[in-house]
Amino acid sequence: xxxSFDWQKLVVDSxxxxxxxxxxxxxxxxxxxxxxxxxxxxxxxxxxxxxxHLEKATLTVIYFAPTSKSPISLLELGLLANKPSSLVVCCPxxxxxxxxxxxxxxxxxxxxxxDLENLIAYIRxxxxxxxxxxx
Length: 135
Prior knowledge:
By secondary structure, the chain is mainly alpha-helical. It has helices at residues 7-14, 41-56, 71-80, 98-107, 116-133; strands at 60-63, 87-90, 111-113. β2, α4 (98-107) and β3 form a beta-alpha-beta unit. The mean pLDDT is 89.
């Protein structure tokens, strides 16, 4: 919704040395005037791409910026809550629905990080571990 800094770039830049594919739904050419309808081809393409890649991803990272409402991230948390091993959430103090996020993550044993620094360290650890297991 445009109220969050580009945290995805920060994360991607911090783990760019890892040999992994990263699916980032943030688009520079996103047009917020697009009608959010199943009948809008651009909108439909974006949403189906996001859903396809949520299913495809080994690890999904969700960050709830304190300055954002993050309705799509909340929806994605709900969609993935029953797959806790493929999800890591960062929800710092100040996010307006932090209590809800904390309870959903606790109930579903979803890994939670307190800040972006710890989130990046967790991602790095997960993929370095997977790399070592497969060598």
